[in-house]
Amino acid sequence: MARDEGRGRIALVTGGASGIGLATAGVLAERGWRVVIADINEAPARAAATTLGAEALALDVTDEQATEAAFDDIEARLGPVEALVANAGLIQPGAPPERLPLQEFDRVIAVNLRGAYISCVAAGRRMAPRGRGGIVVTGSVTASRTAPLHAYAPSKAAVVHMAACLAAEWGRSGVRVNAVSPGYVATPPLRAAMERGLRDPRLLTKAAPLGRLVEPEEIGAGVAFLLSDHASAITGINLPIDAGWLAGA
Ligand code: NDP
């Protein structure tokens, strides 16, 4: 992939201070995008941005007004946002449905679905009149296969379908919308679940034909491809990046 693929265009990555978002921000920066890291807490967003030579802002993606204001601010200071990675998400440890508090269900849907929708609409309403733009949402392999994660998995199925609906809506305006669906990636929430014995790394790796977890940079590479001109005819798809986990299941 070319180092100047981004050509200095602006890419906003939500949840960009940690894990998959941070790695994706790094890959995009390497490929010549001007990256803006948005995350719910300012300090980690700033720390991540400093390492990558990126911009940072504090943003709760569930707040529509704040999201619109953030886009206005970035566009006034830096220029048009040409790529959005709607990645911020809550990974729910899981509980049987009978014991999953409804507030927890609402919280997961609020961030993973409603928050992604708010970011996508803020991006699309600006990109469509300009006739260009790319959006990638972070789904999950649990969007395609059942998992005992009774808020998380449905939220990811919905966000993947949302991306396809938005692709159909904005395709004629030159805006492409796709999803990536990571398999298991050892980011802080998964590492915490492993440490608490809630996930067994041996079972996760055994279930994947490649026999390993996925590196966060491998998700970033998929996102960068979907945002690049190499993917100019690709919209409305869901790209699993899962070490073969869905195929091997
Ligand atoms: P991380 O927790 O490492 O990164 C998520 C980031 O999003 C954190 O910095 C978190 O902040 C931030 N965030 C949470 N809520 C909000 C909000 N309301 N507004 C803005 N930022 C917010 O997790 P991952 O990197 O693992 O996950 C990234 C995405 O990838 C998620 O959508 C997740 O569902 C998805 N995914 C992850 C997989 C994995 O195995 N790791 C597998 C499949 C999908 P804070 O930590 O301060 O809460």
TrEMBL record:
One of its GO terms (molecular function) is oxidoreductase activity, acting on the CH-OH group of donors, NAD or NADP as acceptor. Transmembrane segments: none annotated. InterPro entries: NAD(P)-bd_dom_sf, SDR_fam. It holds the Pfam family adh_short_C2. Belongs to the short-chain dehydrogenases/reductases (SDR) family. This is SDR family oxidoreductase.
